[in-house]
Design brief:
This protein is of the alpha/beta class. 34% of the residues lie in helices and 16% in strands. The chain has one domain: Aldolase class I (TIM Barrel, Alpha-Beta Barrel). α3 runs parallel beside α4 and α6 crosses α7. The longest helix is centred in the C-terminal third of the chain and has 15 residues. Bound molecules: flavin mononucleotide (FMN).
Length: 345
């Protein structure tokens, strides 16, 4: 057991989850937490013109306002997604809004896009010195009406479009009323067109919910193909409560181990149905290196973690990457691309 699990975690887990997050984040922002990097030549790849040293990134929601961009490479990540950022600053939902489910290795959150707003985030980014590729996840402000959603995403994008390696259009958080309805083809295309009006050249991804059925997923895929989007991120948290050992009966999005099978199923469906050039980022319940290997074998080009990182701490990333390399070497797979999708062929 490393320092985090034996010493830091027992202290942090005694605190209220959001206070623990703020404290941990303070240490990260000040460059006081590090993990031994374990990059390896098998893990390098270039996708949509961006060079990634490893396929494992930090998912959206941890660094919502891009306050720690200069430090994520010290924790061994291959990339990070900041946000969700909204056009205007917003405080999010009333506390408590983050809950631990330790027996299930899961979290429930209803943060509600608390962030400093696109303008301040653009300043945070321009005064930091990121050493790794980062994406920017944008979402709808709580106060923007459904009919004005495309304009609202556009406003956030206007402040941020010159930064970042890619943009994630978040239409899948269960914590902003009406947001997931924007996953329908019409509203989604409207958002994409509004962003392209500002800048047609930036790589765009759509982040989908694990709660969409196959028909709804297929409509998202149609929009992605029609608009020639760079890729998809699968998945956000789930509003469902399946397979929990202890359900705290809190509303919000569930993440971590109970999400694993559904997120893997959604990813597999996307891999089978999308044009081969659509880049897929797998996220949801990746708990270790075996899960990482499995996710790439089911079609992911890149992967992200959030909840397992909270439970396992900084050693998760190097351990998972080392395990991934071991499994790839065992099968004589010489690149991430060679592993990608082998479970579905
Ligand atoms: C506390 C918390 C806050 C989150 N905030 C966001 C967010 O702002 N935007 C977003 O797209 N996803 C957000 N997510 C979802 C994660 O990015 C990820 O899709 C989800 O947690 C599944 O991955 P995991 O099982 O590895 O945690 C959040 C997740 C958690 C636990």
């Amino acid at each position: 057991m490393g320092f985090y699990e034996s010493a830091a975690k027992p202290l942090l887990f005694r605190l209220d989850p959001e206070r623990a997050h703020s404290l941990g984040f303070w240490f990260i922002r000040h460059g006081l937490v590090r993990a031994r990097p374990s990059y390896h030549r098998l893990l390098r790849q270039t996708l949509f013109g961006v060079y990634f040293q490893s396929p494992l990134g930090l998912a959206a929601g941890f660094d919502k306002s891009a306050q720690a961009l200069a430090h994520w490479h010290q924790l061994g990540f291959g990339f990070v997604e900041v946000g969700t950022v909204t056009a205007q600053p917003q405080p999010g939902n009333p506390k408590p809004r983050l809950f631990r489910l330790p027996r299930d290795q899961a979290l429930i959150n209803r943060m509600g896009f608390n962030n400093e707003g696109a303008h301040q985030v653009s300043r945070n980014i321009s005064t930091s010195n990121p050493q790794l590729p980062y994406g920017i996840n944008i979402g709808k402000s709580r106060t923007a009406p459904f009919e004005q959603a495309a304009k609202d995403y556009q406003e956030a994008f206007r402040s941020l479009h010159s930064f970042g390696a890619y943009f994630a259009i978040n239409v899948s958080s269960p914590n902003t009323p009406g947001l997931t309805e924007l996953q329908e083809k019409g509203p989604l295309l409207e958002i994409i067109h509004a962003l392209r009006e500002v800048n047609p050249d930036r790589p765009l991804f759509v982040k989908v919910s694990p709660d969409l059925d196959t028909a709804a997923l297929d409509r998202v895929i149609e929009a992605v193909h029609e608009a020639n989007l760079t890729g998809l991120i699968a998945t956000n948290t789930t509003a469902l409560r399946e397979g929990l050992r202890r359900d705290p009966r809190e509303t919000g999005g569930l993440s971590g181990r109970p999400l694993k099978h559904r997120a893997l199923d959604v990813l597999s469906h996307l891999y089978k149905s999308c044009n081969p050039n659509v880049v897929l980022i797998g996220v949801g319940g990746i708990m270790d290196g075996d899960d990482l290997y499995e996710r790439i074998a089911h079609g992911a080009n890149l992967c992200q973690v959030y909840t397992s990182w909270v439970y396992r701490g900084p050693s998760l990333v190097p351990l998972a990457l080392r395990r991934l390399v071991t499994l790839m070497e065992r099968k004589n797979l010489r690149s991430i691309d060679a592993l990608r999708g082998i479970a579905l062929r």
